[in-house]
Fold:
Amino acid sequence: MSTAAARPASGRPAAGAAPGPRSRHPHRPRPRHLRRQRALRRLPLVPATLLMLLFLGGPIGYCVGIAFTDMRLTGASTTEFVGLDNFRRAFTDDGFRNAVVLTLVFTLISSVLGQNTLGLALAGLMRRASRPVRTVTGSLVIAAWVLPEIVAGFLLYAFFRREGTLNAILDVAHLPSQNWLFTLPILAVALANVWRGTAFSMLVYSAALSGIPQEITEAAEVDGARGFRRLWHITLPLIRRSVGTNLMLNTLQTLSVFGLIWAMTRGGPAGRSQTLPVFMYDQAFGKALIGYGTAVALLLLLVGAVFSVAWLRLLRTEV
Structure:
């Protein structure tokens, strides 16, 4: 039988015959149509991207350019390109190295140990507390968080100063008092930042703990896992991603704290509470070295990037 006779009169292939190459994907869009669809989906992002480039990318690019110059606030007629001189100066500057060490100490005490640990403890305690206790405690903690940084700085200055509230309490308890802002300034400003910023960690961990299934908690209690053992082996692994997110956000916020320290100590005495933001401000506006101060700001940005990468690696680890 010939091939023509095997085909039906309509010209369509016989039943059971393999479909032609065009019949496999009858509705596949053309590449040009796909590109048009992608462009239309991205069109609403164009205004936001332009605003980001204008108000964020523009100033950052300008600051990067200034960091490689000797720009000053002294009315100099010319600004010269100095290359990496500002960065070399920073790494040989005792004040900069002191600021780096104090920034790490301040971040460790305030963010990693203080806000993170205290926020988790408050979130765990408030889950078991009665409703009135939760309301009062939550209101007090969040009230400290919503205060403007400069207002919180003046309040904590009045608390830690020589004639302040803390020493008055110690005198009533017949305990030795001291000038906290002079003897332990970096500890005083770190504790002040803990008091102000713990509310954020508490809210993050409250949401994370509420997402733990009750069946897991009950099974852990039946198996005898209680207290610290249950926290370490059950709770923390389940909220690991929340811990990483909280640490990253808290660390970045703590690295940029300026107003609180400036209101309490202005980086003193003798630079013993001068973190990198305060050192940067002092160099740029106190000593009029805009180029050098901007270079320090870029190095502070690098420190924040290192911490971010560390916490993002923790976030990337699956439970």
Notes: The radius of gyration is 30 Å. Residues 111 and 250 are 6 Å apart (CA to CA). The mean pLDDT is 83.
